[in-house]
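call fold(seq) -> C-alpha cells
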Amino acid sequence: MLRHADIIEKLSRRQKADLLTGRDFWSTVAHEDLGLPSAYLSDGPHGLRRQADKSDHLGLNASLPATCFPTAATMANTWNEELGEEMGKRLGVEAAALDVNVLLGPGLNIKRSPLCGRNFEYFSEDPHLAGKMAAAYVRGIQSNGISACIKHFVANNQELRRMVTDSVIDERTLREIYLTGFEIAVEEGEPKSIMTSYNKLNGEFTNENMHTLKEILRDEWGFKGVVVTDWAGCNDRIKGLIAGNELEMPACRYGADDVFDALEAGTLDEALVDERLDNLIELVLTTDAAVKAAPKKWDIEEHHAFAEKCAEESIVLLRNDGALPLKEGERVCVIGDFAKNPRYQGAGSSVVNPTKLDNFVDCMTAAGKKFTYEQGFNRYGKKKKGLMKKAVKAAQQADKIIYFAGLDEVTEAEGLDRCSMKLPQNQLDVLSELYKLGKPVVVVLSCGSAVELDVINDSNALLHAYLGGQAGAKAVMKVLYGEVNPGGKLAESYPVKYEDNSSAPYFPGLENTVEYRESLFVGYRYYATAGVKTAYPFGYGLSYTTFEYSDLKVTDKGVKFTITNTGERDGYEIAQLYIGKKESEAYRPLRELKGFKKVFIKAGESVTVEIPFDKRTFRIYNQNANAWQVEGGEYTVEIGASSEDIKLTGTHSVKGDATDFGYDKQKLACYYECKTAKVSDEAFELVIGRPIPKSTFDFYKKNRMVIHENCTVADLRYSKRWVGRLFAGVIRFAIRFLRGIGKRTTANTLIMGVLHQPVRGLAKFGGMSRRQMEALMLMFNGHLFKGVHQFLSKGKKKKEEKQA
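ret:
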C-alpha cells in the first residue's frame, strides 16, 4: 500500500517522470501545490560540502564553512563505533543547519588495492570493520532526522574508467568481501538511502543490477529506502527503475523523457513507478520536517574540539625506540611543509571548507614549545637543494628532529588512481640527510592510504596521522608530547612493497574489465595466509604503555578474556577476534576478523573483555548452493593485538549445514594454496562460473572504434574519424601542459571531469537532451556538420512537450 497515494494520484505521467530525476545539480523536483517540497543532497562523508555558488561535482567552487572531521580512512583507525556515531550526530546537526536533507556518505568500499585514488574516503580492507563503522555513522547522522546515504554500491574499487569498467567477481567473493560491509550498515544502521556506483558488476551497471539491488538489497536485507545514482551514473533509466532505483542525479532531461515515453507506450509498469515515487516522497517529507525543525547554527568550537578528539584517537604509533614522548624543554627542530600547511583531507567531491584550521607550527607556538621550523622540501615533489640545506643547518642545533612527510592533496584524489605507493623522492632525500646528523628523528606521516615507507622506517619513531581533519595538528602535538597516549590501530595493511599486494597483477583494469582474480585474499587475508611479510600488519598500533592478555574462555555465545595494563600510563587497547578453519572443504583465508573491542585501561589495572559471536561469525557463502551456510567442525578462535600478533588461541566446534561446495581442489590449487599472483584462466572461469569476459576493446587499431555513449573521451583516440581523435588529443595535450606548468590540480580536474567521462556523462553533466548527446556521437564518428546542426537545432517537438 502506498503511503503517499494522496500525492501520487494527483501527478500526471509527465510529473511522475520528472520527479524521478533531479531538479538541478543537488536538489529534487518540488510540487509545493501538493505539499511536496524539494530535498537537497550534499557531499559530506567527513564534513558538509554545500556549495554557496554554482554547483559542481569536482570540488572546484567554494562551499559553505563546515567542520572538517577526520576522513573515513582516519576514523577507521579508532576502531571506535561510539566515537563514529557521535561524529555522525554532529554531521547531522550541521547538515540540518545548512538545509541539507541527504548527506552523501559514508563511503565503505573495500580497499582492494593501495593505489585506489579514493581510499582516503573509505574505511578499511576488512568488511566487518568497515560495516561496523559505517553503521555507527549512519545511526549518528540519522538521529537528527536527515538521511545518510551509504556509497558506492558496489565493487567500485578503482578510479580509472570507473564509469564504464566491468568488475568481474565470483559470487562468493562478492558476498563475503564486497557486500558484507554494506549488509552490516543496512541492517544495523538502517540508512534511508544508498548510492549505486558508476561501474558495471558482472556485465550489468550497478544501478541496473537486479541481483544486487532487488534480490540482495531489497529482498534479503530488507532495505526500504531510496536508491540514488551517483552523479551522472545512470546508463539506462528504465532498467534502473525496474531494478530498484528511485532517483537519478543530477537533473537529466532525457532520463525523464525516457520514463515518460515508456509510460505512454505501456512498456513500463506505472504501478512500479508509483512504488518508486512513494519511497522518494517518504524520504523528502520526513527529512524536510527535520530540516525545518533544526537550529540553523551549531557550536563551532565544540565541533572543532570534538574533531580534535577524533583525530587523537585515530593517530597510530608505528614505531618508537624511546624517542617519544618528547620531553618539555627539549630543543626540537620541526621540518616539513606539512607542518605549516597541513594535509588534512582528500580531494574531489569530498572537499570541505573548514570552519577553522590548525597547523602544527602555530599549535607549537601557542603552547609555548621550544622549537624552530624549516620547510625542508617542496610538497609537490620538486627538488630544491636550498630548502634542504636550510633544514639540515637548523636541525644541527636541535636535540630532536620532527619530520613531517606525506602525500600531497593532488596525488590522492577522486577520479584517478595513484601511479605507485612511493613517497616523493625529494622528501626521502631530505630525511636521509637528516639521519646523517645522528640525532633522534621522529617522522609524522600524513596520507590517506598505504605507502612504501623506504627510509621512513629507519626513523627513531613513526607516527601516522593519516588525514586528521581541521583539528588534526593539535592532536599530533598532544600525542608527541605525551598529553595523549596513542591508541589507534591500522585499518589496512602496509605491504613492504606494492608488488606484495594480492591485487597488484590485476589492478587496475585498463579497458573493458577489471578481474578480481585474487578472490577472497584481500589485504591481511592474503598476507597472513600466504606468509607474506608486511611492513605493518592490519590492526597494528603501539602505545606508550603495554598490555598483557590472559584467561581466554570460548563459549557458544562468544569469547571472554582479560587484558591487563602492565605499563605506567593509562591507555586504550583494541582487542581483535579472528576466526579460522584449518580443515575445510572450501578454500579460506587463515584468519578473518569477526569482532573487536576497544577498552580504556588504567595503569596497573585489568578488565574483562567480551566479544559476542553473531550470525556472520562462522558463515560461508556456498556458491554451489547459492546460500549462506555453516561448515561444521572445529574452528580456531584467536584474540590478537593485530592480525599478526595473536595473543590468545582457542578452538570451538560448530554444527554445520553446509552442502557440497562443488570445488575441484586440483584445478583450484592456486586458491587452496593461496598462490593468487598467477591465477589461470581455467581456475578463474571455474570460480566465476562462466567464460571470462573480453577484457580488451573489441576492435583492432587499424579498424578503429565506432563511438557510442559509453565510450570515454580517452577512448576517442581510437575513433574512426578525426573529430573524435582531435578532441581526445586536445584534452590529453591540455593535461600534459597543465602538469608541465605545475597546475596539477587543474589537470586532475580534466582527468576526472572530462578524460574518463563517457559521452553520456558529458551529456548528463552538461544538461543535454538525448538528441544533443546523439549529436555528439555523430560528430565523434566523423559526421561533423550533421552533428553540429543536430546539436544546435531544437528538432521535432515531442508529444509530451506539446502536452506540457
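The CA atoms of residues 734 and 740 lie 10 Å apart.
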